[in-house]
Amino acid sequence: MSLKNKYAVVGVGYTPQGKVPDRTSLSFHLEATANALEDAGLKKDDLDGLIAYRHFPPCPGEPDITPQLIAQQLGLAPAYLSQDAN
Amino acid sequence: MLDAGICNYVAISYGHSGLWGGGMRQLLFNTRPSEACFGHFGAVGRYALAAQRGMHEFSSGPETWKHIAMGQRKWANLNPAAIMHAKPMSEADYHGAPLVVEPFRLFDSCQMNDGGRAIIVTSAERARDLKHRPVLIMGMGQHNPSNEIAQARYLAGPTGAHKAGRAAFAMAGIGLDDVDACQIYDCFTYTVEITMQEYGFFGRGEGENWFQGGTIEPGGTMPVNTSGGQLSEAYFMGLTPIAEAVMQLMGRCGPRQLGPETRTREPQVILCSDNGGALQSHSCLIFGRG
Predict the structure, then answer these.
(1) Sign of the dihedral through C-alpha A71, A39, A44, B139
(2) Rounded to two decimals, what is the model's pTM?
(3) Which of A39, B17, B128, B156 has the most other CB atoms within 10 Å of its CB?
(4) Which residues of chain A neighbour B135 with C-beta distances below 8 Å?
(5) How far apart are the CA of A25 and the nearest CA of chain B, in angstroms?
């Protein structure tokens, strides 16, 4: 059955952008996700799926970014975690 | 996962300390010995190779790309959050910028930046109870001819965009004439040209004519990358184009909002693309106003 018009995007999360000193990649994931939830009018516990977009080598001195790490730091245990390739 | 009933609300997030944290430099200088031994270094070189082939096969080149770089910059000049917001670009600026990897000059190349972006996806039914007017996913298509450009059968098309675009339009049940604006993955200016050519907006080699005269700019007939895109707003992979399509269809874009404000059509349908592997993996999404 066609997926046409069955699903929708309901929120967008932004963060500071450009040269933003003293921030980790993880912190941008957390801020963007929190802002997207707020934008949609959802509570964080509503979120039951998390997809990390791309999997880059960690920046120097930073942890490897995985959806598991993002979920842990958000205090969530989503039913579905995924990450696409680099 | 949504369709299987496993999830109700899914976040897709991206974050990268690409500039201050050194992440993008690390990616760009990540050379492969099998390529470096031929004098070929990193992602810019891979796209530059494809663009050179496009120049050879269908007269692509800077005379086409300048319209893309300058057109997107005009959108960025309307977007206070864009990194290049306060910097207009003249034709002399475009041609005078230093070469990065021939044939790409600085303004053919996307931003390197820190930051993040996320979106939330749910069912159309649940979406109706939330804050904003929902943005429906009308169609999607993917096609991945190879893993990397060194294994590609064709350098200058057909790329993955050809089949992915047709699949997305088939699902949406609409045609190119129904599209009001495009948000095209624009790691380089050439990527915009080859992607739109493969989707069928113009014939092979007709890009120079199609882009001239302000086609993609404020006031144009087919606005493209209305946040400034990755060239002039900020680089968040496929979430730069998707976020902008969503915000435009929600009507939340202020001075750059499509419609009377920018002398463009009020958008009902916006086409988005993402690609990777130097034009070897491709995803096309068509969004509609809910």
Answers:
(1) negative
(2) 0.97
(3) B17
(4) 8-10
(5) 4
Q: Which two tokens stand for residue B214?
A: 């302000």
Q: What does the radius of gyration of chain B's CA atoms come to, in whole angstroms?
A: 18
Closest C-alpha to B69, from B283, B225, B262: B225
Q: Count other C-beta atoms under 10 Å from residue B38's C-beta.
A: 9
The correct CATH number of B42-108+129-289 out of 3.10.20.30, 3.40.47.10, 3.40.50.620, 3.40.1190.20 is 3.40.47.10
Q: pLDDT per position in chain A (86 positions), as tens?
A: 799 999 999 999 999 999 999 999 999 999 999 999 999 999 999 999 999 998 888 999 999 999 999 999 999 999 999 998 75
B81-110 pLDDT, tens digit per residue, is 999 999 999 999 999 999 999 999 999 999
The domain limits of chain B are: 42-108+129-289
Q: CB A40 to CB B120 under 8 A?
A: yes
Give the separation between CA B67 and CA B92, rounded to whole angstroms: 12
Q: How far is CA B140 from CA A6, A60, B143, in A?
A: 12, 36, 11
Measure in Å the smallest separation between the Cα of B252 and chain A Cα atoms: 11
How far apart (Å, rounded) are the C-alpha atoms in residues B11 and A82?
10
**Interchain pair B10, A12: CB under 8 A:** no
